[in-house]
Amino acid sequence: MRGQTPMADILVVDDDPVSLGIVSKILEKEGNTVTGCTDARAAIESLTFHEFDLLVTDLIMPDHDGFEVIQAAKSLRPDLRIIVLSGIDERVPPELTMQALSKLGVARMVRKPIKPAVLASEVLAVLIGG
User: pLDDT tens track of the chain, all 130 residues?
Assistant: First the structure.
């Protein structure tokens, strides 16, 4: 699969440095350029000054959450594609969560703990198909 992924400029936002590192490494291995932020404020600043192809963000973060990052991204760049990383409780049906997120302009949701193959294929699907 490597080499087939379009090179993309991706912003990854996760308050957990370990998770941020794992996601960044997976995406870089697929040939993408990755900018990592550990908080929403830094992510919004990055979005203000740089045009990314894709935003991959955690939802639950201290101070400012992923919803604020998504709202800022959509107001700064309405066509930006978004994938949410979610540790949302498994008792919540993923289709309900995705229904709510799609109203915010989110293309896909990848559950935590992250499986490298799943993340890589979801990113590829979003980059190719939108």
Answer: 444 545 899 999 999 999 999 999 999 999 999 999 999 999 999 999 999 999 999 998 888 899 999 999 999 999 999 999 988 766 677 778 888 899 999 999 998 889 999 999 999 999 998 6
Chain centre to alpha carbon of residue 57: 4
Quick check: pTM over 0.85? yes
Helices (H), the chain: 17-29, 40-49, 66-76, 94-103, 116-129
**How far apart are the C-alpha atoms of 124 and 45, rounded to whole Å?**
26
> Which DSSP symbol is given to 27?
H
Here the tokens at position 21 are 């590192």
Paired tokens of 37: 């932020």
